[in-house]
Design goal:
mainly alpha, single chain, 73 residues
């Protein structure tokens, strides 16, 4: 190996992005379909949409910041 090490943060960013997109998609489907679990309060806040977006944005930040081949580390 000739110094072509990949940062663990790149893989963490990849996982955060994937999980965020999955949660966001589920939240959008739940919001569009109106299928809320019974007895859950504050459904109008749409928490999966917000948390999925936050995770996806954080993951994208890590993907860009720690992408392989980046020279200024």
């Amino acid at each position: 190996m000739h110094g072509s090490r990949m940062s663990i943060w790149f893989f963490i960013g990849l996982l955060l992005t994937l999980y965020g997109l999955l949660i966001l998609a589920a939240g959008i489907a739940e919001w569009a379909g109106g299928h809320y679990p019974p007895g859950v309060e504050l459904n109008n806040l749409h928490a999966p949409v917000w948390w999925g977006s936050l995770l996806a944005l954080l993951g994208l930040f890590y993907l860009v910041r720690f992408r392989p081949g980046r020279s200024d580390r």
